[in-house]
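User: Can you recover a sequence for this backbone? Please restate the input before giving your answer.

Assistant: Of course. Working from this structure:
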């Protein structure tokens, strides 16, 4: 068992006072790190890396060892779950992910199998166990999954999309089938996350990267409602494990997201942290929200913009420093060291 309940990250998620603000970064184990690129080359591909528990453990620990981040995040991907449902995930170099067998009809949705997370994604649970056993005891491990809507965009479009035309057509023209898909994914996701907790995850996060692409009514009906369903299921299966909901472009929905009963909200860089805090009050902790583009500039600008985020949140507990989205491949690793130093030395 880990012993990290008093860690800065979990205390901040409970909105308890901390000696300084915790920091970790979305995509912290990624291509900007030379040691990640070396392990990925040894694995042969991203999918082979994510599918190998020993190597997934190795890359999860790399940014912890290099920078002393206050939380680790499981090395995996949000598309592993639909892959386990039989859609056939692949990655095309330079093109991103694709599915060999995307969903084409309501019949495909009805035929989706119920997966057993310990069996069908056993390698993910094995990675969680290995990481938990290898991490410093005081460092929490975050497990994660995609939101039903965000995962569904890839399942329906078959690949990354700019306008989500096919996925939105399903929501608008086949709402019953779309609802069935959201429910299937919400239930599978809740089981998948609960299995990660059983394997050793100390906190959970849901990535709704494309929630911001929906109109407010479709967002509420499909993305928010399916995330609410997951929160409720997790309250029953893992009542002591805090959950963070991250929605990109979802600033207008912050109050509704806080009302789901989650512990924390991820905030992207398009919203001022102080305003986010005023809007959700002390209902949830907030995580974010430095623009990842800042990391491409220089140490002076990294310090200046990090301080802007720290000051914007203001005094008091409940802030976990992070980027507003994942770190990009071209970032100089030295800039990350500057960011960590700036946040760690900030007087609360
Ligand atoms: O944050 C972490 O370090 C944990 C690991 C993690 C990855 N993907 C590893 C990864 C997490 C949490 C994700 C989530 C994810 N995956 C999201 C939601 C978050 C977000 O970024 O909005 C989405 C939409 C995906 C789907 C996905 N996976 C895409 C679109 C791509 C290709 C894009 C790209 O950056 O090339 C991936 C691949 C992927 N997942 C990489 C990593 C480190 C890069 C793969 C490589 O090494 O080539």
């Amino acid at each position: 068992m880990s012993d990290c309940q008093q860690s800065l990250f979990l205390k901040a998620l409970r909105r308890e006072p901390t000696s300084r603000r915790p920091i970790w970064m979305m995509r912290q184990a990624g291509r900007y790190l030379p040691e990640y690129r070396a392990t990925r080359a040894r694995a042969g591909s991203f999918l082979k890396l994510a599918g190998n528990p020993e190597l997934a453990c190795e890359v999860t620990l790399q940014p912890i060892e290099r920078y002393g981040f206050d939380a680790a995040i499981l090395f995996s991907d949000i598309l592993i779950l639909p892959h386990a449902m039989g859609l056939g995930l692949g990655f095309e170099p330079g093109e991103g992910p694709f599915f060999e067998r995307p969903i084409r009809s309501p019949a495909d949705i009805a035929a989706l199998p119920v997966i057993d997370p310990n069996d069908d994604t056993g390698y993910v649970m094995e990675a969680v166990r290995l990481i938990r056993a290898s991490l410093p005891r005081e460092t929490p491990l975050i497990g994660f999954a995609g939101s039903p809507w965000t995962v569904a965009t890839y399942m329906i479009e078959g690949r990354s999309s700019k306008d989500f035309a096919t996925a939105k057509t399903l929501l608008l023209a086949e709402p019953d089938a779309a609802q069935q898909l959201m429910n299937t994914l919400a239930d599978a996701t809740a089981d998948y996350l609960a299995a990660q907790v059983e394997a050793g995850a100390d906190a959970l996060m849901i990535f709704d990267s494309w929630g911001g692409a929906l109109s407010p009514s479709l967002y509420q009906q499909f993305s928010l409602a399916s995330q609410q369903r997951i929160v409720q299921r997790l309250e029953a299966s893992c009542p002591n494990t805090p959950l963070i909901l991250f929605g990109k472009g979802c600033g207008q929905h912050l109050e509704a997201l806080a009302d789901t009963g989650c512990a924390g909200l991820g905030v992207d860089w398009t919203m001022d942290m102080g305003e986010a805090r005023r809007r959700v009050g002390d209902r949830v902790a907030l995580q974010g929200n430095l623009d990842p583009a800042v990391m491409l500039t220089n140490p002076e600008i990294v310090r200046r913009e990090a301080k802007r985020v720290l000051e914007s949140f203001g005094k008091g507990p409940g802030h976990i420093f992070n980027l507003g989205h994942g770190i990009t491949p071209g970032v100089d690793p030295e800039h990350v060291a500057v960011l960590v130093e700036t946040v760690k030395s900030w007087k609360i």
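That completes the design. The pocket of coproporphyrinogen III is lined by residues 26-31, 40, 46, 73, 75-79, 96-97, 144, 146, 160, 207, 209, 326 (CB under 6 Å).
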